[in-house]
């Protein structure tokens, strides 16, 4: 059967010598960060160090929950203020290895932190770098006394990576976060995804037939979470566990200890994931291994998803098999059917599955502009609280006062921070924002000198009035041919107005209120 809508489909079957459980337990935990948000000190949990979040974020308020008997990483949160329904993001920023693939997991437990007026958790957004990751809605889990977690796979595009909590128009009380994990994945995992342009958002990951707690580290060397999953079908135990060291995506051996199965002549039908999916393109990986109950058995079956052929005549032996599709369109309820082949003398079975939404990356602000804005931020004593993460993306969450261009090359084209009480100085790095057409920094408390801005060849408007700027007006401002407005009134400027700014056509210059300013030469 043809798949005209299927963009790319790949399959891989691997088997290598088995890796014993004791060898797995000796593996080192994945490298990266375990961040206990809002905690006042680092802690050791199950042999792994959880860090405080002070070194990763400069905004928000650390709060303790009063709910008894919580695990340590749920007992505190960092909360972020909403303001007049504005969309604002607050970002954790971590040093990372450029080009490495990171598993990012955020965990939320509300605990009534916003007070009695808000008994239900707020709904808000989360963002990675410049890409919208997902809406955070923990209401259903919280009503059952449960925490909620979200997981994704993102590639580091630079030396830092940001994970942001963002209030939206539907956010009615302060957003929060309980913990954040940023862990390096093995380079071979999910490597058929083009991480140059896409990321993966976890939809579901289950160990079929497993009825215990979530499988994580050390069973999974990358600390992915495999949730238990049972349906009204037979659960069988395995007499053999395949190698996982060479298995595609390296699932933990524990998921192969049990499987869902059915009678030999019957098809196995799963409603998985166990909820309706929005229309999108998904990465689907299914994992199988023969349970070894009969050496002479031949386990062969076809796989269909929503009655569309996914794979034909899959032969599953004790060494195991993984079948995956990198871009498979789904919408609504999903049905997976395993149908025994005519000459198969063993029933179909399935051990585990993963499904991710394939996210298109939202773009990134030009590196030169990011560095320039960071320099400007560092020169201010009180920069806007949301000046972290990507300055321009997602578009609805650009930094306060920052306006950006559209298209593939994302540049900062305007700064408007008029009258927000800024203090500090103007960093010379502002001159590296070479796409700027306007700068509005009037009515603040900025001090120091005006830097050389002659590199801003597109600048039309420069408003620095009503500040505490000192020194002379740079003569280099006269080199900006596009300049139409230069407002410098009511500062503490001295010296002479440069000849190149006097009487120039189509340029309005205002300098009143600078009492030590000498008149221009006649």
Automatic annotation (TrEMBL):
SUPFAM superfamilies: L domain-like (SSF52058). The keyword Cell inner membrane does not apply. Residues 35-358 form the Malectin-like domain. Keywords: Kinase, Leucine-rich repeat, Membrane, Receptor, Repeat, Signal, Transferase, Transmembrane, Transmembrane helix. Pfam families: LRR_1, LRRNT_2, Malectin_like. Residues 368-405 form the Leucine-rich repeat-containing N-terminal plant-type domain. GO terms for cellular component: membrane. Residues 1-22 form the signal peptide. Its main location: membrane. One of its GO terms (molecular function) is kinase activity. It comes from the Eukaryota. It is a single-pass membrane protein. It is found in: Membrane. This is Membrane-associated kinase regulator 1. It comes from Hibiscus syriacus. The lineage of its organism: Eukaryota, Viridiplantae, Streptophyta, Embryophyta, Tracheophyta.
């Amino acid at each position: 059967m043809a798949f005209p809508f299927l963009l790319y489909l790949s399959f891989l079957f691997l088997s290598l010598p088995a890796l014993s459980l004791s060898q797995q337990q000796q593996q080192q935990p994945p490298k990266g960060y375990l961040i206990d948000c809002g905690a006042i000190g680092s802690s050791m949990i199950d042999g792994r160090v959880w860090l405080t979040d002070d070194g990763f974020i400069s905004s928000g308020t650390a709060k303790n929950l009063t709910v008894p008997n919580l695990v340590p990483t749920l007992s505190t949160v960092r909360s972020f203020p909403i303001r007049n329904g504005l969309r604002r993001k607050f970002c954790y920023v971590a040093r990372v290895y450029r080009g490495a693939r990171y598993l990012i997991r955020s965990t939320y437990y509300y605990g009534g932190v916003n007070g009695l007026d808000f008994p239900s958790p707020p709904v808000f957004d989360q963002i990675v770098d410049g890409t919208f990751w997902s809406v955070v809605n923990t209401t259903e889990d919280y009503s059952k006394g449960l925490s909620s977690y979200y997981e994704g796979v993102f590639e580091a595009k630079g030396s830092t990576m940001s994970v942001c909590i963002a209030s939206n128009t539907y956010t009615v009380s302060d957003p929060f976060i309980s913990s954040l994990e940023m862990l390096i994945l093995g380079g071979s995992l999910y490597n058929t995804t083009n991480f140059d342009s896409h990321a993966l958002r976890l939809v579901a990951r289950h160990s079929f037939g497993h009825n215990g707690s979530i499988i994580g580290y050390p069973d999974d060397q990358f600390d992915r979470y495999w949730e238990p999953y049972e349906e009204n079908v037979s659960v069988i135990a395995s007499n053999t566990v395949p190698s996982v060291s060479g298995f595609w995506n390296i699932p933990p051996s524990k998921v192969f200890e049990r499987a869902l199965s059915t009678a030999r002549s019957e098809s196995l039908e799963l409603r998985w994931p166990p909820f309706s999916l929005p229309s999108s393109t998904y990465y689907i990986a299914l994992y199988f291994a023969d349970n070894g109950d009969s050496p002479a058995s031949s386990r062969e079956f076809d796989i269909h998803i929503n009655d569309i052929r996914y794979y034909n005549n899959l032969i599953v032996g004790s060494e195991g098999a993984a079948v995956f599709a990198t871009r498979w369109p789904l919408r609504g309820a999903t049905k997976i059917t395993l149908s025994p082949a005519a000459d198969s003398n063993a029933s179909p079975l399935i051990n585990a599955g993963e499904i991710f939404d394939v996210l298109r990356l939202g773009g990134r602000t030009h590196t030169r502009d990011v560095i320039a804005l960071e320099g400007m931020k560092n020169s201010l004593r009180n920069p806007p609280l949301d000046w972290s993460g990507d300055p321009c993306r997602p578009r609805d969450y650009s930094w306060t006062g920052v306006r950006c261009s559209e298209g593939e090359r994302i540049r900062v084209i305007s700064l408007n921070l008029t009258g927000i009480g800024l203090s500090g100085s103007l960093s010379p790095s502002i001159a590296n924002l070479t796409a700027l057409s306007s700068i509005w920094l009037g009515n603040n408390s900025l001090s120091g000198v005006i830097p050389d801005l002659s590199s801003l060849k597109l600048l039309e408007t420069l408003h620095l009035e009503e500040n505490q700027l000192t020194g002379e007006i740079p003569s280099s401002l006269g080199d900006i041919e596009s300049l139409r407005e230069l407002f410098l009134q009511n500062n503490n400027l001295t010296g002479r107005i440069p000849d190149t700014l006097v009487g120039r056509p189509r340029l309005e210059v205002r300098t009143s209120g600078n009492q030590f300013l000498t008149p221009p030469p006649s």
